[in-house]
Amino acid sequence: MDPLDLSLSQTADALREGALSSRSLTETYARRAEKLDPILHAFLQLEVENALREAAAADERWAVSRKSGNAPGALNGIPIAVKDVLCVRGFRCTAGSRILEGFQPPYTATPVDRLQKSGALILGKTNTDEFAMGSSTENSAYGPTHNPWDVTRVPGGSSGGSAAAVAARMIPAALGSDTGGSIRQPAAYCGVVGLKPSYGRVSRYGLVAFGSSLDCVGTLTRTVEDAAFLLEIMAGYDECDSTSMPSPVPAYRKALLDGPDLRGVRIGIPKEYFLPGIQPDVDRLVREAFGKLQSLGAQLQEISLPSTEFALPVYYLIAPAEASANLARYDGVRFGVRREGDGLWETYNQTRGKGFGSEVKRRIMLGTYALSAGYYDAYYGQAQKVRTLIKAEFEKAFQEVDVIASPVTPATAFRLGEKVDDPLSMYMEDLLTLPASLAGIPGLSVPCGRDSIGLPVGLQLCGPFLGEEKILKVGWAFQQVTRWHLEAPNL
Amino acid sequence: MPLTPIEVEHIALLAHLQLEEAELAKYRRQLESILEYADRLRRVDTSLISPTTTVLPLRSVVRDDKIGESLLCDDALANAVERERNMFRIPPVFE
């Protein structure tokens, strides 16, 4: 048995049955990560020795539990990776920025803490666009990540390091964050499963803040079952995050046990998501996926979400506005890198002017403008009102359908450097993922084929607020009758 | 939405960003084109719509005002660029 072929859920089974030790599992992944990272640059930090020590401790816990009968945590001994925007004590946290170079967080983010308490061990921190601002991972101050299916192309972003690492089998699963599509889009580009839960379903405590009314912590995995597995452990109220939902956490994995039966499930296809410029392969493969869902018993119907065209301008006013406030804390005083100027104000200006990269400064400028006196109502205020319309359209749609299905992106992965000088064209990559972010609803990206040159295509499934079970059920049904998630790039 | 160089410098000042001349010129062009794109929002009649500040049904979440564990002073100061005793040290505010 090659442990690299196993999903996270299968790995957990193999460890529990004693067919695999955490030490050999972790060693296998660590060696592969070390071998491939010079090509892909998925990781910003790999801590192999530490992970192997923790793996040995996990094997001890398995040995003890076999005698005592008390099972250890569900993830005992499984290595995972964490996007470098989540704080983990003992690891640096740079958020892909020079301004946080060498920053050692004094605490661990709640979702990571919950996975660690369940026995997971952290192999490393993955690359990201600076402060999660980007759709290609090219905005990382530490250099871009490469797409494992074609290293001349981007892995998507901003969770591009996590997506590439999972796709290249350097790790069984990784955490990401999604503010406007930053989990779902790289998942689609890299051919893995990306889950953005509902806003507030998973605590944001310990996540480097970008757009606080939009930021969500989620997962990149090979299977939908694995996403359900991790969500079940991470989700739920956290007293450290006043925006975490107190609603009970369903047994997400249990909802998947029924098998691929979608009878009675109503799936809406929003006509606005099939834009004139859509890549023909993407259009074809996503429609073939709809056909598969129908053959499993789902009822398909066309729906309309007329405000979709406004999601992009709404997002690119609200997220930068929130970011400009959140990033005010990087002033070279309490943490990060300082550039000394003449007095305190000059020091602030120098620190920030030199410490932030181009895209981050662009968004701070845009957000500052949108919030400034005289422009607030016209830009930020109007964007918040149109956001209400977008959210209301989803609520209305979910009275008629259970799940909304669409492409994740209008095209497959683009070439490195292709869009760096054209921010608007880069922002267009997020067109189909932004609406769910603005509405706060869950979204899932599932691999559904590859285009004519072999690049992965993703199917997006969105559900109502806190309706993760519905999209997981449809996504897992799809994976049980397809094999896209079992294919790995040739590396 | 044309922006003047003075407006762009003013935004940079508000944002505490020291920018080079070339950066100011680049951001002026790029912000103009992004704002021009955003102008399509003006077409939407929102006179009867209230803004969404949060998608959550929660409002004003409070907790009991109990003293709990907090960061140790040394942990909180561990990343300080400059430290003096139990304080962050900064360049002088007043000349």
Summarize the structure.
The complex is a heterodimer of chains A (491) and B (95). Chain A is α/β, with parallel strands linked by helices and 491 residues long.
Q: Can you give a write-up of this model?
A:
- The complex is a heterodimer of chains A (491) and B (95).
- Chain A has helices at 8-17, 22-40, 48-68, 110-117, 160-167, 184-190, 224-234, 280-295, 311-326, 343-355, 358-371, 377-400, 423-427, 434-439, 468-480, and strands at residues 43-46, 79-83, 121-126, 173-178, 193-196, 216-221, 266-270, 299-303, 403-407, 443-450, 456-462.
- Chain A is globular, with a radius of gyration of 21 Å.
- The two termini of chain A are 20 Å apart.
- Chain A contains 15 helices and eleven strands.
- Chain A is an alpha/beta fold and 491 residues long.
- Chain B has 95 residues and is mainly α.
- Chain B is built from three helices and two strands, in the order H-H-H-E-E.
- In chain B, a hairpin with a 2-residue loop joins strand 1 (83-84) and strand 2 (87-88).
Draw up the topology in text.
The complex is a heterodimer of chains A (about 500) and B (about 100).
Chain A: H1 8-17, H2 22-40, E1 43-46, H3 48-68, E2 79-83, H4 110-117, E3 121-126, H5 160-167, E4 173-178, H6 184-190, E5 193-196, E6 216-221, H7 224-234, E7 266-270, H8 280-295, E8 299-303, H9 311-326, H10 343-355, H11 358-371, H12 377-400, E9 403-407, H13 423-427, H14 434-439, E10 443-450, E11 456-462, H15 468-480
Chain B: H1 5-14, H2 21-38, H3 73-77, E1 83-84, E2 87-88
Antiparallel strand pairs in B: 1-2
Q: Which key phrases capture this entry?
A:
heterodimer; A: 491 residues; alpha/beta; Amidase signature (AS) enzymes; eleven-stranded mixed beta sheet; 15 helices; 39% helix; B: 95 residues; mainly alpha; Histone, subunit A; two-stranded antiparallel ribbon
